[in-house]
Design goal:
By secondary structure, the protein is α+β, with helices and mostly antiparallel strands. Helix content is about 50%, strand content about 10%. The protein has three domains: about 100 residues, Acyl-CoA dehydrogenase/oxidase, N-terminal domain (Butyryl-Coa Dehydrogenase, subunit A, domain 1, Orthogonal Bundle); about 90 residues, Beta Barrel (Butyryl-CoA Dehydrogenase, subunit A, domain 2), CATH 2.40.110; about 160 residues, Up-down Bundle (Butyryl-CoA Dehydrogenase, subunit A, domain 3), CATH 1.20.140. The strands form two sheets. The chain has a four-stranded mixed β-sheet with strand order 1-4-5-8. The chain has a four-stranded antiparallel β-sheet with strand order 2-3-7-6, with no helix packed on it. It is globular.
């Protein structure tokens, strides 16, 4: 089933980092978060607002029709969106990753054309992960791109294709009969493409992170990217996507603090054996809130520091000469951030209920969504493997993994 995507509403200029327009967009998204989690609405309206605001070109230079944001400013927006509704930035992750990839090859006519699509408010999705591959993240692909007349045909199936249900254009990894790694960049509604909302995760329920299948899909010659020849490969290419997920988790932590404060100030009674009659005056509950707020602060600070390291590395890539040492340092900081933040966030999402008591466990409160969403995002890449790699690197300088999922 293909999703009917709302047409982007043109605006004079894209929303910019720190602008009242962006703050208003995030506020509207936050206002509908609980209704979406209850199943009373889906994410298409929110994504339509994102398209209309042209948030997708936040990182493009102003003279190229974008908002001119630095990479750290993009991560600040991801944090804010994560606090508002963690589904929305997760849906957009592959779009922002594609824009970063396109920015690194300014001389490519193909990528300039696709950036024009982003300027028009269109959103890019991704087809990468496959259930049939033996080792997750090793770059293997059973999706095939075969010659057909003056073009090609695309056949295969992708899973965990987050955001494709809402996307306008898909970037799909495949291999030619000769084994060359390529990508097809094609409209999401082309004949033969099926985007199925069959994701049944306990959290991030609205990301539609299910299957995308391709059955004899026509691909034109100028829609094919020869990855090795036409894209600027950077070391530790997965750092952006991994840190992006950690930023969403840090954003959820901010939502936990927000909801904990609201719980504490709304309660009118306390246990007879408590140290204060009013919960907001109870030093035990005040301490709990203080610990939650401190965890959120540390998580945000770690994400933004790692984003600054990645920005320094990306600046060298945008200049055409990626600095391997800077990229490894950014990868290290992103990994260390995830290792600590995942644990902080899961603990905080549990301690939220200590502030509210039994009434906080009502289904109508939807407070369990924070734990469910954190648990789902953090499961994308188990902490144990990252911690071991960081430990080896710290021990004897063993290089960090460079492929996907690290």
């Amino acid at each position: 089933m293909n999703a009917p995507n709302p047409s982007p509403r043109p605006v004079d200029a894209p929303v910019a980092s720190g602008s009242p327009e962006l703050a208003g967009l995030i506020a509207v998204i936050a206002a509908g978060a609980e209704a979406r989690d209850r199943g009373e609405a889906d994410a298409r309206e929110a994504i339509g607002l994102v398209k209309g605001a042209r948030l997708g070109v936040l990182r493009l230079p102003r003279d190229a029709g974008g908002a001119g944001a630095r990479l750290t400013e993009l991560f600040e927006v991801v944090l804010a969106l994560g606090e508002a509704d963690s589904n929305i930035p997760h849906i957009l992750r592959n779009h922002f990753a594609f824009v970063e990839r396109a920015l690194r090859v300014p001389g490519s006519a193909k990528h300039r054309r696709w950036l024009d699509e982003a300027r028009a408010g269109r959103i890019f999705g991704l087809g990468a992960s496959e259930l049939g591959t033996q080792n997750i993240g090793d770059g293997s692909s059973e999706t095939s791109l075969t010659p057909d007349g003056d073009g090609h045909r695309l056949n295969g199936a992708k899973y965990y294709s987050t955001g494709n249900y809402y996307a306008d254009i898909l970037y799909v990894h495949a291999r030619t009969p000769e084994g060359e790694r390529v990508a097809a960049v094609i409209p999401a509604d082309r004949d033969g493409i099926d985007r199925t909302d069959d994701w049944d995760g306990i959290g991030q329920r609205l990301t539609a992170s299910g299957a995308t299948t391709f059955a004899n899909v026509r691909v034109e010659p100028d829609e094919v990217v020869r990855i090795a020849a036409e894209e600027l490969k950077v070391p530790h290419d997965a750092t952006f996507a991994q840190l992006y997920l950690t930023a969403i988790v840090a954003g959820i932590l901010k939502a936990v603090v927000r909801d904990a404060r609201a719980l504490l100030t709304s309660r009118g009674r306390n246990y007879y054996h408590a140290v204060a009659a009013k919960p907001a005056d109870d030093p035990l509950l005040q301490e709990t809130l203080g610990r939650l707020a401190s965890a959120a602060y540390v998580a945000e600070a770690a994400v933004l520091r790692a984003a600054a390291a990645l920005e320094r590395a990306y600046d060298t890539a945008l200049a055409g000469a990626p600095d391997a040492e800077l990229f490894e340092e950014a990868s290290l900081q992103a990994a260390q951030s995830k290792i600590v933040i995942d644990e902080l966030a899961l603990t905080a999402a549990t301690r939220l209920f200590d502030v509210g008591g039994a009434s906080a466990a009502k289904q109508s409160a939807r407070l369990d969504r924070h734990w469910r969403n954190i648990r789902t995002i953090s499961s994308h890449n188990p902490v144990a493997y990252k911690a071991r790699a960081v430990g080896l690197h710290t021990l004897d300088g063993t290089p960090l993994p460079t492929a996907a999922f690290f």
